Amino acid sequence: MSTADAPDAATFDVASIAADFPILGERIHGHRLVFLDSAASSQRPRSVLDAMDRYYETTHSNVHRAAYTLAERATNAMEAGRTTVARFIGAADASEIVFTKNATEALNLVARSWGAAHLGEGDAIVLSVLEHHANIVPWLQLQQTHGFEIRWIGVGDDGLLDLSDLDQLLRGSKLLSVTAMSNVIGTMPPLAELVERAHAAGALVCIDACQSVPHLPTDVRALDADFVAFSGHKMCGPTGIGVLWARRELLETMPPFLGGGGMILDVRLDGFVPAEVPHKFEAGTPPIAEIVGLAAAIDYLDAIGMDRVRAHEVELNEYALRTLPARFGDDLRIYGSHDAELRGGVMSFAFCDIHPHDLSQVLDEHGVCVRPGHHCAKPLMRVLGVGATARASWYLYNDAADIDALGDALDAARSFFSI
Amino acid sequence: MSGLEDLYREIILDHYRSPRNRGELAVPPATRTEGFNPLCGDEIVVFLELDDAAKGDDAVITDVRIGGQGCSISQSSASMMSAAIKGHSVGAARELATSFKAMMSIHEGELEGTAADDAETSDTAGELPLGDLDALRGVVKFPVRIKCATLGWNTLLQGVDEATGT
To answer: Is residue A403 in some structural domain?
Structure first.
């Protein structure tokens, strides 16, 4: 874990952090860019862009199985990246880090490899209604061919999971797969409790950590889950790179997912022998430059300290939850918990009956980027009773002035639609 | 805000605030057709009642109602559509849909050519004017919103096919 100083948001220098991100200097319709969509994809600091450029300028070749110097350099860069990721999330060994395209592919890997081998008629898994489609659809797809039962943990009006019947849901189930942080309303389920109760019931636990790894300190060993999935592009890294972590013993029992080069020890006309973990899950040429970029992003976040990133976002939560309702009263409805400590830096809201698409269009005119829509969480939208929400999300480069800018743009939208 | 005012013309906001032909019709005799925009979750329901479905494109749309939920562009476009087609033939409604979709297309010229060809071969009372619908022309400058504007029309085209059994 990070050895940075104790959380001290007062010394968290947002201006100097924001200056590290070239894109934040862009102007949109004559306004400064107010980027409030990091829950969809964050921006990247110069150090990440430079690391990827440098890799292509000095290091690139295909990895493994070549004797020349460049191939060795590229392989070393990729494996150093794996070690960086392992250290960042507290994995016991770099071989427990499987590189994927994104968190979605990582979750599909769990379903198609572990799930296909262990789930069938009479079996059950448990998901929550909070989940992103990436942690729902792979299981629904597998259910079509394997016929197991999917049980659902509901969500209460407060946006928190309803755990009243959890033991009943877990009884006889083989897996609990749940988000660490809702990408819509920021809910952070009590993972320690969920893991303990799932394990007590004999179920493995898969965590969709796509929204949490970029924003909170992560220690997979302390968490004691069985699978953890996340994406690089939400944590200041490039697109096209994701991670699946699982304990080595568990990965070793799992069949390969995608087949091809790089994931085998031997291929004959009548069969093949898969490679060791993690390579048996990494078919084809890997996204080497993206791994290098992800490692640079982790170095950047580590230097700041994930505990301080979290403290900063809680402060922004407090600021938004205090100032926006005070300014807009009943015209603004914020979904989910109103406790700044209980949520991630992501806020879905409804405003003045203005449709989220119309709202985000007017906000864009003021340089404010928020995302309208169902946020790939249609089951949760049905619980909220809406087809779409507008969503603002913040990260280490946002500050109170950005939330003020959101408020000013909301004011302008209200005037524009004459409500 | 000149770009925004191009998108949100006053007539559009008027249809959004006071949608025309909002509601439902009894099914049957009416038909009910749903259209979805999976990207944003917007939904339009078009109810159509014809004088005589057997007349095909010559059948007259005696009543139309619009249901569903969505943004100002999808809802106002559907509202204007309902006002434009009510009392006119299925064939004329098809032509208007083609003209409107052509206006919403980046290949405008090309498709308008197609629309004109259709009009020539069509056996209907003649082309309906775009009228208020012309106010939606500004949507073309906002490509992500084109699907909002065409949602009701695609649902209408599906609806007249169902209503006339084609």
So the answer is: yes
In chain B, what are the domains? 2-164 (3.90.1010.10)
Q: What is the pLDDT of residues A176-197, one digit of tens each?
A: 999 999 999 999 999 999 999 9
- CB proximity list for B3: less than 8 A, separation 6 or greater: A29, A365, B141
In a domain, A4, yes or no: no
- The count of CB pairs under 8 A between chains A and B is 48
Q: Which pLDDT score is estimated for A290? A: 98
Nearest chain B alpha carbon to A31: B1
Same domain, A311 and A284: no
Does the beta-carbon distance from A387 to B42 stay under 8 Å? yes
Q: Considering chain A, what is the average pLDDT of its residues?
A: 95
CB contact under 8 A, A381 and B41: yes
Which of A105-109, A254-258, A398-402, B37-41 comes out lowest in average pLDDT? B37-41
Provide the residue range defining the domain that includes A184: 49-303
pLDDT tens by residue, B62-91: 999 999 988 989 999 999 999 999 999 999
Residue B92's alpha-carbon distances to A137, A159, B22, B57, B75, in angstroms, are: 42, 49, 21, 8, 21
Looking at CA atoms only, how far is residue B57 from chain A in angstroms? 35
Structure tokens at A390: 């507008």
What SS3 state is found at B121?
A: helix
- Which of A303, A324, A346 delimits the end of a domain? A303
Nearest beta carbon to residue B71 from set A355, A365, A418: A355
Residues A297 and A309 in one domain: no
A34: β partners:
A368
Same domain, A158 and A261: yes
Euclidean distance between CA atoms B149 and B151, whole angstroms: 6
pLDDT of res. B129: 76
Contact A356 B72 (CB under 8 A): no
Give the tens place of pLDDT for each residue, A88-131: 999 999 999 999 999 999 999 999 999 999 999 999 999 999 99
Average pLDDT over residues A232-241: 98
Does A296 share its domain with A390? no
Choose the final residue of a domain: A303, A336, A355: A303
Say yes or no for a CB contact (<8 Å) between B1 and A416: yes
Q: Which structure tokens are listed for B16?
A: 């959004």
Nearest CA in chain B to A412: B1
Tell whether B106 lies on the interface with A, counting CB pairs under 8 A: no
Q: Rounded to a whole number, what is the distance in Å from the CA of A1 to chain B's nearest CA?
A: 39
* Contact assessment for residue A406 and residue A347, using Cβ atoms and an 8 Å cutoff: no
Among all residues of A, which ones are annotated catalytic? 376
